[in-house]
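Homework help thread (please don't just give me the answer)

Our assignment gives two proteins as sequence + structure token strings and asks us to describe the second one. The first is just a warm-up. Here they are:
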Amino acid sequence: MQYNDVIQQLIGPEPLEKYATTDVGTREVLVDLQNLTCADLFPDGYEDADMASCCLSGLWLLHNFLREGHEICQDIDTPAGSFWHAIMHRAEGDYSNSKYWYRLAKTDPFHADISTAAGQPYEPEALVDAVRQQGILAVHDLVTAEWQVLFNHCYTEATGTL
């Protein structure tokens, strides 16, 4: 998927490689994210404010700023908002709460897309268990595919493009 320069700079290959493998993001990215609004992410406008906010939450989470990502996604009452919420709780190690939010998300359509993108089966509660038991590096390809598929979905819904 082709994103604008603002998003592309924040997503780039390095952040995806480091996704969920560090405790917190860098100071430089923090400054960029603190000044970022949905209007900045979508300079041509957006059709769905919740999905635009989901993208903003996803970018905070990509860079491992869990508190900031949580502040956004906890107020989004949609399946995608619940999905981001689940990812955040998994990243902070609150595994039972993560499973709760995955159940609320009811996003079965994502599962096949995530499986395809990762080249392996995807089941969110099993992923939570794998992270808890084996650590994030053992399933990094799967959590990265999960992030990318969800972000692409939210971006598409926010912009109204297919």
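The one we have to describe:
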Amino acid sequence: MFYIFPRSVAPDETDISTQQNQKKENARLQGTHAHQKWPGCNQQKKVQGQEKIGSLTFPKHLRLLKRPLFQGCYKWGRRYATRHFIVFIRPNGLGHWRLGITASRKIGRAVVRNRIKRLVRETFRLHQKQVPGGLDIVVVCKKRPDIYKLNLDIVRGQIVNLLKQVRVPEKSGTKPENQME
């Protein structure tokens, strides 16, 4: 059973107004005493041309994201192989290439799979000018005992050599590019 006691006001308690004082203009310190990480402090404005650095990024429109697009590459794409990767290439009818990376659980734990995918993504990011346009590219990682020893130089060597051998497949005799299965 619960008892409710009447609230008594102690002698040191007083009623406080709920109205707040007027907001002070520029309450934060400005100039040399300002905190560097707070927004609105003396931060340098972006220099014109910094947007061009983004040419080495890996934006979403350069990725294969849907399962039917991967399956179309497996089914109708041309197959190339290196020591650690199988690469499927298919024309996509767009002006740019798109990349999909697959690493199954047979390869290893998530840490290993994600590391391999990062290495492949970084290779394509660094060498995007050498990749022929208008292609969908799917890179499948092979299960090998030395897969843990992969580094950027090994991946870069294999992928760049493969890209030099690739001829852009002609569109005749293939299923329409952008059509999902």
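TA reply:
I won't write it for you, but here's a hint about the kind of observation we're looking for: The longest strand covers residues 85-91.
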